[in-house]
Amino acid sequence: MTHCPLCGVELIPQGKPFINQKRIWETGSTDSHPFSPIEVLLDNLRSTLNVGSIFRTADGAGVHFIYCCGTTPTPEHPKIAKTSLGAEDFTAWEYRRNALDLVKEKKQLGFQIISLEASDKSTSLFEHSSISKQEPTLLVLGNEVSGIDPEILDNSDQTFFIPMLGKKSSLNVAVAFGIAIYTLCN
User: Fold this and answer.
1) In contact, 115 and 148? CB cutoff 8 Å
2) Which DSSP letter does residue 179 get?
3) Among the residues of 2-159, which ranges form H helices?
4) Which helix (H) or strand (E) element contains residue 180?
5) Mind listing the pLDDT tens digit for each residue in 72-131?
6) Residue 113 near residue 155, CB atoms below 8 Å
7) Is the dihedral of CA 84, 89, 94, 95 positive or negative?
8) N or C: which end of the chain has fewer CB within 10 A?
9) 37: number of CA atoms within 13 Å, CB side?
10) What are 1's strand-pairing partners?
11) What distances in angstroms separate CA 20 from CA 17, 75, 85, one per listed residue?
12) Reduced to 3 states, what is the DSSP secondary structure of residue 46?
């Protein structure tokens, strides 16, 4: 197309074309990554659109691995591709039935367990001193309505909340994940 279909003005291309660069490091390798692996556990999320959005953000943030647990839909669901835009092809993932078992397994492997949940024991995400870049980390996100299993919270090394200044008490889980992953990796 050389002219605008509405007004007929000649179109002049400017700038370089958009290039979607794929991850520069291979899944499983942290050689080019500035910190130890960050893995994400999605426990009983309901929305395929939220899961797809989390995959897309996770790819952008360099998340090493995503675990879909409980009732969380996996990338095999066709609606996830609507919001992930193919990011599920670049971020390794696995389905696990029981999130608590996975948390305990990761803890034994030396992972720091961080949960994103507003609770009596949580502290503001913006008051953290940043995560250890030497220790692998598992970031846990829970159900959009009921939150994270209390036993998982008991097994967490840190629990953070995102301060809410309006009337609502929480953000969309995919939005909260985006804020948390980039804040924790700062």
Assistant:
1) yes
2) H
3) 48-61, 80-84, 99-108, 150-154
4) helix 173-184
5) 988 877 777 666 666 666 688 899 989 999 999 999 999 999 999 998 888 888 886 566
6) yes
7) positive
8) N
9) 18
10) none
11) 10, 20, 11
12) coil
| Higher per-residue confidence, 4 vs 70 | 70
CATH architecture, range 38-184: 3-Layer(aba) Sandwich (3.40)
pLDDT band at 13 (very low <50, low <70, confident <90, very high): low
**For residues 61 and 33, what is the distance between their CA atoms, to the nearest angstrom?**
10
**Locus of tokens 């840190």:** 158
The owner of tokens 């009596």 is 120
**CA-CA-CA-CA dihedral for 93, 97, 103, 109, to nearest 10:** -60
Q: What are the pLDDT digits (tens) for 24-38?
A: 334 444 444 455 689
Picking from 51, 46, 140, 157, the residue whose alpha carbon sits closest to that of residue 100 is 140
Give residue limits of the domains in the chain.
38-184
- Confidence (pLDDT) at 152: 96
Q: Return d(Cα 45, Cα 142) in angstroms, integer.
A: 6
